[in-house]
């Protein structure tokens, strides 16, 4: 089940630059993009906590699924990403390009264990914010 308009508006109240990328013929939201603040990350701890903005794209057409959606990083450029929980570029079929994506780590299980009505765009973005503002060196991708 895709994202409903009221659910999108709830998330947009926290992430004002959140945009609808595509909808189905009933007006349900299939994909979104936006940006959020996170840490630069990496192993140089003198700069790791420096704040940067991450642009993102998410296909939310099946957001109620037990599988957490892929969270694609649009910016900064892949070669400048230091965060240890962001994968190197992989193929994003929706955008027909190679992009980095979040390593969800334990959030995969947290998402699966959420009651279906609680698998919302807002909940997904809160989880992404948590990943982007912390580093889990036990679930390292870089």
Secondary structure: elements and pairs:
Blueprint: H1 5-12, E1 19-23, E2 29-39, E3 51-59, E4 71-75, E5 86-92, E6 97-102, H2 107-113, H3 121-132
Antiparallel strand pairs: 1-2, 2-3, 3-4, 5-6
Key features of this structure:
142 residues, alpha+beta, Ubiquitin Conjugating Enzyme, 4-stranded antiparallel β-sheet, two-stranded antiparallel sheet, 3 helices
Q: What can you tell me about this protein's structure?
A:
With 142 residues, the protein is of the alpha+beta class. The chain has a single domain, classed as Ubiquitin Conjugating Enzyme, CATH 3.10.110. The protein contains three helices and six strands. The protein has a four-stranded antiparallel β-sheet with strand order 1-2-3-4. The protein has a two-stranded antiparallel sheet with strand order 5-6. The chain starts with a helix and ends in a 10-residue tail after the last helix.
């Amino acid at each position: 089940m895709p994202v409903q308009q009221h659910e999108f508006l709830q998330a947009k109240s926290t992430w004002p630059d959140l945009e609808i990328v595509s909808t189905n013929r009933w007006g349900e939201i299939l994909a979104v993009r936006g940006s959020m603040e996170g840490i630069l990350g990496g192993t140089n701890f003198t700069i790791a906590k420096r704040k940067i903005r991450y642009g993102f794209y998410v296909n939310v057409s099946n957001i109620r699924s037990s599988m957490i959606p892929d969270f694609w990083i649009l910016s900064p450029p892949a070669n400048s990403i230091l965060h240890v929980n962001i994968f190197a570029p992989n193929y994003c079929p929706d955008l027909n390009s190679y992009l980095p994506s979040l390593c969800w780590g334990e959030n995969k299980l947290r998402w699966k264990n959420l009651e279906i009505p609680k698998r919302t765009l807002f909940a997904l973005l809160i989880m992404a914010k948590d990943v982007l503002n912390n580093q889990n060196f036990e679930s390292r991708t870089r």
